[in-house]
Amino acid sequence: MWRRAATAALALGAGAGAHAIATSEDPARTLKICRHLPPRLLRDSVAAAAIAFDYQYSLWGLQPDSPAWLTAKHDAHLRSANRLQELCFRNGGIYIKLGQHIAQLEYVLPQEYVQTMRESMLKRCPVSSYEDVRGVFKKEIGELPETVFAEFDPVPIASASLAQVHAATTHDGKKVAVKVQHDHLLDTSVIDIATVDLVVNALNYIFPTFDYRWLVDEIRESAPKELDFLCEAQNSERCLVNFRKLSPHIANSIYTPKVYWNLSTSRILTMEYIDAKEVTDVKGIKDLGIRPVDVSNLVNKAFAEMIFKHGFVHCDPHAANMMIRPLPQDSKKWFGSKRPQLVLLDHGLYKELDHATRINYASLWKALVRADQNGIKEYSIKLGAGEDLHALFAGVLTMRPWERVIDPSFGHLVLDGNNTDRSEMQMYANLYFPQISELLRRLPNVILLMLKTNDCLRAVNHALVGGSTPESFEIIARASSEAVFEAKRMEKRFFLYRFIIWLEELLNELHLFGMKLWLHYQQPRRILAG
Known about the structure:
single chain, alpha+beta, four-stranded mixed beta sheet, disordered C terminus
């Protein structure tokens, strides 16, 4: 079986390279790019064959779901995750991005893969040499960084999968952060996507229940946008404009760094330097006089507004892409603490929700918060989950078992983040792995990215407050309800229809008021805990 995996991998990879050359407008350049194919293809083939063989050998002759089978599967998951991690680091580029995607899909992928990637991929990224950085500047701007800027630190202050960031000072004395794409990444990305496709397809060929081809489709669609830093700059500015126009009540609490367009290209992005703490740096945030629970609530508000009202969503909100500082020029305090401002970074990966998808998704979350079984089923089906998997979809979204999802109590969706909660969800994820794979195959890519965004935010909330705050679901309930009622008002303008909507809003406000009372009951304990 593993020989078949290796043969399939080699054939698919060779075909991908030949197709790239044959269809390229610049065959000579593509041929040069394809020199990266053989070593990547060899590593991919060996990794895919080793993973396939490991699963086949480790589970051979064991009774499915028996204790011995579960132990063997866990060990095989762990070994395979380490092999995949090593492959990502050795190939670099888009492979690092793949590993980061996996790290943010908690309970959607086997936990062994998620934890292995999370421990490494978000922190250990490749670093380009200063000579490579100078080469990118020469190609893009025609001058070296030490000429373009009055000062340019050759040692990067941060590095990610696609680029690294250097501190610099402009000739008029402004401190800036300069994001420089890793050299040759634009060239190798075509081959990387083809070979990532190879690995996933080979594993799906061996194990039909392992169907994560949607992940490759998403990387194939998003990578060109993420590699265009001018697109990222436009996303950054559009995000801020959306908050000012559509969410003015929290606009001052959201910030994106100013872009220096005259010092930016598709591979170099020069931005305002921001002095702030990483969103999960709990000690640093407290040292600023800010409560972590206030940060958690602000993050939840920001993304609820983006998802349910703007329909233009930052889909890579892991900890390194969000920073916190005290709200500038703010004299007000909450319970003796300073108010936070959320600084959003890395705007390369955004997704637009069309009107119907945005309202259906808002309606689904409104139903989830209200424990409305009929609404959950209706809007899960509309979003593509199907009638048979609507309960599983609700569980994946909320990280709660179905009996908790439909529990009418106000705190039914709150995650404490304790070991019991996490163990319970890991058990369900392992138990329903084939059904989860089928669910992900059905859902449109935009909803898959919403799942990824939810997982990123869940990880941030866990770091800040040990789980989800009770306030987070009041925030989701209000933002989703407002989006739904606004859509209804725009739909029809007849007096009777608008009166019915008004009654629905009144009942909704009563429900939200009940949630508020429950939150006030919970608040003293949370203040003492914070």
